Amino acid sequence: MLAVFVLAGWLTVFAGWFLWQRAQPGLMPDTSPCHGISAAPVSRYFPPDSFCRHADGELRTVNGPDARFVFWTAAGTTVAMPIAAAVARRRRQA
């Protein structure tokens, strides 16, 4: 259970960071999904997501549903593992 908890925790951190940084230009501005369409990159910390703010003010996400699914699955597993460990420990003591 500890190995699953640690791996899911790191996957949550890296997937969240990737989702959050996707639209930011970083070191190479030409790789940003917002580059070349006259849109400004916008990020949200939680739940992590990146958007392009277009000229009409609309925010459009640059992350697909698969990436968000990976984040939420990893986050749910990270939260579920300590609960499962507590239940297993309680059953073993009884």
Short description:
The chain is built from two helices and three strands; from the N terminus they run αβββα. With about 90 residues, it is α+β, with helices and mostly antiparallel strands.
Characterization of this structure:
The protein has two helices and three strands; from the N terminus they run H-E-E-E-H. The chain is of the alpha+beta class. It has a three-stranded antiparallel beta sheet. The mean pLDDT is 84.
Primary descriptors:
single chain, 94 residues, alpha+beta, three-stranded antiparallel sheet, 52% helix, elongated
Structural class from helices and strands? alpha+beta
Integer-rounded radius of gyration? 18 Å
Average pLDDT number? 84
Low-confidence stretches: none
Helix content: 40-55%
Annotation, overall tally of beta strands:
3
The global form is elongated
| Elements, N to C (H/E) | HEEEH
Strand content: 5-15%
| Termini Cα gap | 20 Å
Largest sheet: 3 strands, antiparallel
Secondary structure tally, helices: 2
Q: Strand order of the main beta sheet, please?
A: 1-2-3
Chart the SSEs and their pairings.
Layout: H1 2-21, E1 40-44, E2 49-53, E3 59-61, H2 65-93
Antiparallel strand pairs: 1-2, 2-3
